[in-house]
């Protein structure tokens, strides 16, 4: 295993000292330790300097819904042809020649635009990297949101599971938005679970979905994706407006959400001044946004710290 020599005249010394990463003169650091421990710290330090955090986004049923055309019934195809939401439906072919339809979730373009101002955005899917890049072109045709920050199943360290060990940012500065908590067994404290988006008929006949069959779709102004954005904005605001620069986003999620994922009406910690406990349960965004004023409470919390 290679080593990394850090010299006394290293021009990055000041930055590393500020990030708590200072190493003694000529101290030999195994390269794997540097890669696994130091780089995520440096990445988070860079994000903080830009007043940003990291947001990892799932694709299917979170930002969009994809289905093979051959699995659509003739009745469903007729309804899709008569739908008023066809502007957000794209037809494309996979590398094996199978034709698919992808429907973007309502509010997704505004979500990405607003979230990118506060977070470095990553795509992380259990689908292939080819599929991830194909969907990135639909979501981000001008390549302004994701760049090369795209992670597919080929990059995962455990088959069928997602882990933040493939995201090169310290976990205390990383949030996740996904419709499934089961795929994140190691990082549930960083996770906000959003309602599953099923536009086409589900594979499971007992499943929910088929929004177009009902002639409806999620609300742009009060749907789950809008609600998720407001929550993420509050976490970002609390993180940077507080005098405490050692915040962990997991703790802030635990403050803003109850264990069942709805916004708290009261925050006892504000009264008692006691520190909060980290929530290790999945945090879920309600089907529709709460009408409670979360921003007001987050500002109250910040002023008390």
UniProtKB/TrEMBL annotation:
Q: Which InterPro entries does its entry note?
A: Fcp1 (IPR039189), FCP1_dom (IPR004274), FCP1_euk (IPR011947), HAD-like_sf (IPR036412), HAD_sf (IPR023214)
Domain FCP1 homology: start-end pairs: 48-218
Key words, A-Z: Hydrolase, Nucleus
What Enzyme Commission number(s) appear in the record?
Answer: 3.1.3.16
Cross-referenced Pfam families, in alphabetical order?
Answer: NIF
**Molecular function as annotated in GO:** RNA polymerase II CTD heptapeptide repeat phosphatase activity
GO CC list:
nucleus
Subcellular localization, as worded in the UniProt entry: Nucleus
Where it mainly occurs, coarsely classed, is: nucleus
Q: Reaction catalysed? A: O-phospho-L-seryl-[protein] + H2O = L-seryl-[protein] + phosphate; O-phospho-L-threonyl-[protein] + H2O = L-threonyl-[protein] + phosphate
Main enzyme class: hydrolase
Function statement: This promotes the activity of RNA polymerase II.
Name of the molecule in the record = RNA polymerase II C-terminal domain phosphatase-like
């Amino acid at each position: 295993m290679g080593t990394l020599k850090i010299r006394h005249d290293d021009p990055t010394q000041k930055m590393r000292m500020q990030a708590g990463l200072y190493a003694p003169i000529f101290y030999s650091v195994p390269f794997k330790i540097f890669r696994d421990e130091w780089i995520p710290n440096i990445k988070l330090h860079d994000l903080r300097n830009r007043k940003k955090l990291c947001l990892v986004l799932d694709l299917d049923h979170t930002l969009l819904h994809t289905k093979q055309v051959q699995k659509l019934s003739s009745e469903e195809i007729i309804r899709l042809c008569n739908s008023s939401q066809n502007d957000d439906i794209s037809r494309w072919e996979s590398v094996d020649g199978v034709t698919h339809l992808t429907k973007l979730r309502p509010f997704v373009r505004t979500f990405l635009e607003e979230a990118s101002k506060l977070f470095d955005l990553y795509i992380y899917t259990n689908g292939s990297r080819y599929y991830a890049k194909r969907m990135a072109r639909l979501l981000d045709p001008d390549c302004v949101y994701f760049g090369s920050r795209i992670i597919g199943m080929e990059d995962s360290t455990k088959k069928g599971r997602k882990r933040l060990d493939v995201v090169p940012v310290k976990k205390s500065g990383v949030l996740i938005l996904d419709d499934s908590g089961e795929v994140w067994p190691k990082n549930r404290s960083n996770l906000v679970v959003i309602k599953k988006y099923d536009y086409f008929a589900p594979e499971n006949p007992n499943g929910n979905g088929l929004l177009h069959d009902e002639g409806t779709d999620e609300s742009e102004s009060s749907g789950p994706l809008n609600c998720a954005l407001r929550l993420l904005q509050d976490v970002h605001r609390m993180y940077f407006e507080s005098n405490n620069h050692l915040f962990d986003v997991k703790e802030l999620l635990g403050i803003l959400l109850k264990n069942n994922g709805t916004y708290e009406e009261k925050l006892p910690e504000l009264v008692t001044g006691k520190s909060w406990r980290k929530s290790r349960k999945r945090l879920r965004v309600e089907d529709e946004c709460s009408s409670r004023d979360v921003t007001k409470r987050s500002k109250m919390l910040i002023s008390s710290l």
